[in-house]
UniProtKB/TrEMBL annotation:
Alphabetical list of Gene3D superfamilies matching this protein: Metal-dependent hydrolases, Urease, subunit C, domain 1
Similarity annotation: Belongs to the metallo-dependent hydrolases superfamily. ATZ/TRZ family.
InterPro entries cross-referenced by the UniProt entry: Amidohydro-rel, Metal-dep_hydrolase_composite, Metal_Hydrolase, MTA/SAH_deaminase
Pfam families given in the database record: Amidohydro_1
CDD domains: ATZ_TRZ_like (cd01298)
Name listed for the protein in its UniProt record: 8-oxoguanine deaminase
Domain Amidohydrolase-related: 54-418
Claim: Ligase is one of the keywords in the record: no
Keyword Hydrolase assigned: yes
Signal peptide, first to last residue: none
Keywords of this entry: Hydrolase
Length: 445
């Protein structure tokens, strides 16, 4: 792969153990790893000038539903709460197939790349008309992002008292068999892996207790991570109390859904006992602030979680509930909401940036990512802070979060350039967008 020298950055934000910020420093990438960080580095390879730029680890997105980029701003779901929103969109999603899943994944991942993201998970829990998890895996490989797809599932349809139409649910034995298939075919547990597969029943209200337990057993047998939605809003808590006789945290613990190999999306309504449970068991949380605002779910207790020692990361969530996919935008929103809830000193810009980078890597179990240090993977975001968005900023690092939602100038994943001068260079993005709009029009028709 050769060498790439990123030269003369205004600041390199390392996110290392002492959170060093190196002014006027260089970064040397070699064979997919970071070879050196510091001033005055030399290389015979390609040189990327970073004057006027802040260099950070690539951002890590820990919760998404990429297929939903095809259903942004759907009129019937624009002002609905979670359950009503789902009931509006399920019949539309049931019309999708392999092409829709693949193209929407390309669009969603490209949007993430342009906002500094180098690693993304995805929660695909429906497989209509022959769609398969590898439709997203191939899309991520083509674009060049590090990918943590999760094999989601729904098994309780309308005829059994569930929310989704029966056409979108699967038999539970078929679900588990396909989990085995995709893990065996695509999961790479090695350092520097570009694809790690997780197991992810959609939510406690869309699958049975037995499937939740069996999924946890299977994941431990295969050595892969577990993911689901949990404690997203008041309806979610009420459902858990009525159907299971306990709060979501207790339900998760009873079925094996706590531990350092588990991360839950949202957790807006965790109480103090559940926060303590997650801290003790090293269970991770994917905080999705924009989606939580969009659906009126509330403000997750991120300050309390982090103070207790819970691993917290960021997620953009699905584009049908956001309706955007800017990970740096999520960092800003996370910071602002914690200030609304807890005061102006509740979260600094640098802490929000840490959650978006190192925090995401920790939640996904990636000690090889999230830090700019020798031996770590060469996942690097380069942000131009010399232009309009940060004009007049006294602190260029804080400006990334405080001064709006910038896009990256350059982005490298595993040492491969994915964004150059603000443009995705690994796929023909205009053609993909044209296809996406054609597919969306077909769904509307």
């Amino acid at each position: 792969m050769g060498e790439i020298l990123i030269r003369g950055a205004e600041v390199v934000v390392t996110m290392d153990g002492t959170r060093r910020e190196l002014k006027g420093a260089d970064l040397l990438l070699r064979d997919g790893q970071i070879a050196a960080v510091g001033p005055g580095l030399e290389s015979t390879g390609e040189v990327v000038e970073a004057k006027g730029c802040v260099v950070t680890p690539g951002l890590v997105n820990t919760h998404h539903h990429l297929y939903q980029t095809l259903t942004r701003a759907v009129p019937g779901g624009q002002d609905a709460l979670l359950f009503g929103w789902l009931q509006t969109l399920y019949p539309i999603w049931a019309k999708m197939g392999p092409e829709e899943i693949r193209v929407s994944a390309q669009v969603g991942l490209a949007e993430l790349a342009l906002t500094g993201c180098t690693t993304s998970s995805d929660h695909l829990y429906m497989y209509p008309n022959g769609a398969r998890l590898e439709d997203t895996i191939h899309a991520a490989a083509e674009l060049g992002l590090r990918f943590h797809p999760t094999r989601g599932a729904m098994s309780i349809g309308e005829s059994d008292g569930g929310l989704p139409p029966d056409s979108l649910v699967e038999r539970e034995d078929a679900i588990l068999n396909d989990c085995i298939r995709v893990v065996d075919a695509f999961h790479d547990a090695g350092e520097g892996s570009m694809c790690r597969v997780g197991i992810a029943p959609c939510s406690p209200f869309s699958v049975s207790r037995e499937l939740m337990r069996d999924a946890a057993l299977l994941a431990r047998d295969k050595g892969v991570m577990l993911h689901t939605h949990l404690a997203e809003n008041d309806e979610d808590i009420s459902y858990s109390l009525e159907q299971f006789g306990c709060r979501p945290g207790q339900y998760a613990e009873d079925l094996g859904w706590t531990g350092e190999d588990v991360w839950h999306a949202h957790c807006v309504k965790l109480d103090a006992g559940e926060i303590d449970l997650f801290a003790r068991t090293k269970t991770g949380v994917a905080h999705c602030p924009c989606s939580n605002c969009r659906l009126g779910s509330g403000i997750a207790p991120v300050r309390q979680m982090r103070d207790a020692g819970v691993k917290v990361a960021l997620g953009v969530d699905g584009s049908a509930s956001n309706d955007a996919g800017s990970l740096i935008g999520e960092a800003r929103m996370a910071m602002l909401l914690q200030r609304v809830q807890n005061g102006a000193d509740a979260m600094a810009a640098r802490e929000a940036l840490e959650i978006a980078t190192l925090g995401g890597a920790q939640v996904l179990g990636r000690p090889d990512c999230g830090v700019l240090a020798p031996g770590k993977r060469a996942d690097v975001a380069i942000w131009d802070v010399s232009g309009l968005e940060a004009a007049g900023a006294w602190d260029p690092v804080a400006a990334l979060v405080l001064c709006g939602t910038p896009k990256v100038k350059h982005l490298f994943v595993e040492g491969r350039q994915v964004v150059r001068d603000g443009q995705v260079v690994t796929i023909d993005l205009p053609r993909v967008i044209e296809t996406q709009n054609r597919l969306a029009a077909k769904l509307m028709g």
